[in-house]
Amino acid sequence: MSRMQIRHTSETKSETERKIGVVGAGQMVQSTLLLCRLNNDDVFTNFLIFRQGLGIALVAANIAKLPVKILDANPEQIKKGLAFIDIAKNRITRDHANATKSRITTVNDISAFNDLDFVIEAVSENVDLKCSIFSELDKVTKSDAILATNTSSISITRIAAATKKPEKVIGMHFMNPVPVMKLIEIIPGLATSDQTRNTTLSLATEMGKTCTKSQDVPGFVANRILMPYINEAVMVLEQGISSREDIDATMKLGTNSPMGPLTLADFIGLDTCLAIIKVLHQEIGDTKYRPAVLLQKYVDAGWLGRKSGRGFYEY
Predict the structure, then answer these.
(1) Alpha-helical regions (H) of 114-192
(2) Is 152 a catalytic residue?
(3) Which three-class secondary structure state does DSSP give residue 91?
(4) Which residues lie across from 45 on neighbouring strands?
(5) Annotated catalytic residue: which of 155, 223, 231, 308?
(6) The pTM is what?
(7) What does the DSSP 8-state code read for residue 314?
(8) Per-block average pLDDT, block size 10, for the chain (315 residues)?
(9) CB neighbours of 5 closer than 8 A, spacing ≥ 6?
């Protein structure tokens, strides 16, 4: 799959004009050590890993230097996430950290998005919730505002149908953790216009990301390949074929991957993995996408991985 080429048009706003919004900061999980790109330097720093919404806002404010409004049902989660920049002050200048924070504004109501040019939705992987949010965004945003969804598996066309401007809706699937991972999958829906696609590519480039394109199919490219891999690893554990440690070591060392499939599932969130594999199974209908019984059991038990303190491993 080749990288998408960016075509700048006269309709693409410059970065000084563009105003960004993000819906959904998400639940905080525990601190970890990651390589994070800050102020154009690669540095190691301890910081809280958060769901993608807050990561998207931070990258837009820090790398693209764009003003960002962020809305979440739990403002405290946003406050905790912004502490990331305070934690990083020993790696970047105080002025730079404060400048990044100054570009991010928390808002309490979706009506505050009425002056934005580009909104990115990053709530949990629930089609009804996403459609409801897009319906509300359609009512309050400008007619030319682009509405992007960070869905990792749900049809862009279906989400766009909740609006009266489906040509302005597009998929923008960020990889987690957003400040570290370079890739964004771009997924046009059935009605997505070329102008929407080009503007989205321009924004992604300003954020320092590499873009690839997928057709609007369940799971797109990344999760169409990744989730069956994780699901099969869970089945191998479930059937007693190997231990969790040996499964991870085999795939990590045998395929030169940064982490094994069970560790990766814990990092992503077992509830997220289950939601995605269920979409693949329901939409495609192939039994190879049937969710592992053990995966469902762990989610039912509240063992969701790193964010809950326990998944296939304890944290």
Answers:
(1) 127-140, 156-160
(2) yes
(3) coil
(4) 34
(5) 223
(6) 0.84
(7) B
(8) 43 62 66 41 43 84 92 75 62 75 91 97 92 98 97 96 98 90 96 98 96 97 98 99 99 97 96 96 96 99 96 97
(9) none
